[in-house]
Please model this.
Amino acid sequence: MIKGARNFKLVNEYGQEFDITRPGAFFHSPEGLGWGQNVTTESLGFSFAVTDIKQTQPRPSGEMIFNNYIDYENFLTFIQRAKRLYLAYMPLNSWYYLEVIATINKSEIRAEQNKLICPLNFKGISRWYEELHYITSSGESTGNGKKYAYTYSYIYGQSDRSIFNLNLNLSSYFKLEIMGEIINPEWRIIQNGVTILSGKINTTISSTHKIVINTNPTDAEIGEYTKGGVYVQNLYNQSDFTTQRLFAIPAGNVTFAVLGQGITAPKVFMEVLKRV
Model:
């Protein structure tokens, strides 16, 4: 990484990274990193009324400058082997992520520069987001080769629940890992003292297992796993269908509470995809 400059990297589904600000494989002249909307209007007297607003699909692009064909092949191998690929961008102090499909056009080494310069284009299949990690003091998260750090401290509001205070500028998806042993786990969004959204599963999770709730539509699930990350079963049909379950956390200041019956505050890991 280059200190004091914009940094870029590619990340695969296992959290493995490929630095694209390295001297031998440098992402040059990046474009399309902003945010936009397509707005449809309709004439209304002497004014125009907005009838539809859609966010435009992110399409970052630029050039990859390689020192030689080996650097090019290493880059190509990384993006070809990734089942899911993320472009990560750090303009200041925080990393922003975009799930992408990458296309690179191979060129030949230019004699005047002695470099291999290849146009690189990305098609975003998500929105730009910042990963926020939350964990209880005794929580744990393992599996899939991915290691998580937390960026916010835990708070126990009551003895029977884990509570996280969130402040989001846009509604955002979340992923919960609730460690067993727990009975009938429940998660709630509380705003101004009122529960506005909730989810609940009517089941018992053993001390060696965990429940995973993912509200991102591309990966949505309510499932049981071992603490080592081995899939056990789908728990969606054991949902309390009077609750919303797979929802996005609304914008603004909210309290996110996780609780279960007959236990102390549960061990919880949460990942929030904060839209930016």
Remarks:
- Confidence is low (pLDDT under 50) at residues 137-157.
- Residues 11 and 237 are 33 Å apart (CA to CA).
- The first helix runs from residue 69 to 81.
